[in-house]
Amino acid sequence: EGAYYASAGPPMVKRHPGLRAHMYAWLFASKNTALFDLFCLSLFLAVTVHWSALLLAVPYIVHRTGERSRIWRGILKPFRFVVYLPRDTMTLLFSGLSSIRHRTPLL
Questions:
Q1: Cβ proximity of 90 and 3 under 8 Å
Q2: Measured in whole angstroms, how far is the alpha carbon of residue 34 from the centre of its chain?
Q3: What is the b/e burial string over 31-50, where b = at least 16 CB atoms within 10 angstroms of the residue's CB?
Q4: d(CA 31, CA 25)
Q5: Under a CB-based contact definition with an 8 Å cutoff, are residues 33 and 42 in contact?
Q6: Which residues pair with 24 in a beta bridge?
Q7: CB neighbours (10 Å) of residue 95?
Q8: Which range, 13-17, 32-36, 62-66, 70-74, is most confident?
Q9: pLDDT higher than 80, residue 3
Q10: For residues 89 and 87, what is the distance between their CA atoms, to the nearest angstrom?
Q11: Are 41 and 56 in contact (CB under 8 A)?
Q12: How high is the mean pLDDT of the chain?
């Protein structure tokens, strides 16, 4: 998911509601975005409620570090999580702004 696709998704879903059947859990563009949203929620809850909410971040970290890669193998594998953070953050930002603009939630 790139920034373009993240911002183009909500207007497409608004025009073609049947696309939701192909989304992850009907609200998310993919499993990656759902897990990243949970990761962000865990950070927010850890700061505002209790530090133990950081446990909600584990599925995203495990998912991102567990993906296959030709470059990020061996001891470099845990760094995949750090590399994907900016990309996933921008995807969430663009998707969120487009969802607000088009009044169609797609995260």
A1: yes
A2: 5
A3: ebbbbbbebbebeebbeeee
A4: 8
A5: no
A6: 28
A7: 25
A8: 32-36
A9: no
A10: 5
A11: yes
A12: 84
| CA neighbor of 36 nearest in space, from 90, 102, 104, 100 | 90
Alpha helices in 16-78 (DSSP H): 31-48, 58-66
Three-class DSSP labels, 80-106: HHHHHHHHHHHHHHHHHHHHHHHCCCC
The tokens describing 88, both together, are 């996933």
Q: How confident is the model at residue 2, as a pLDDT?
A: 59
Q: Taking a C-beta distance cutoff of 8 angstroms, is the pair 50, 78 a contact?
A: no
Structure tokens at 48: 């505002």
Q: What is the pLDDT of residues 47-76, one digit of tens each?
A: 999 999 999 999 999 888 877 777 777 777
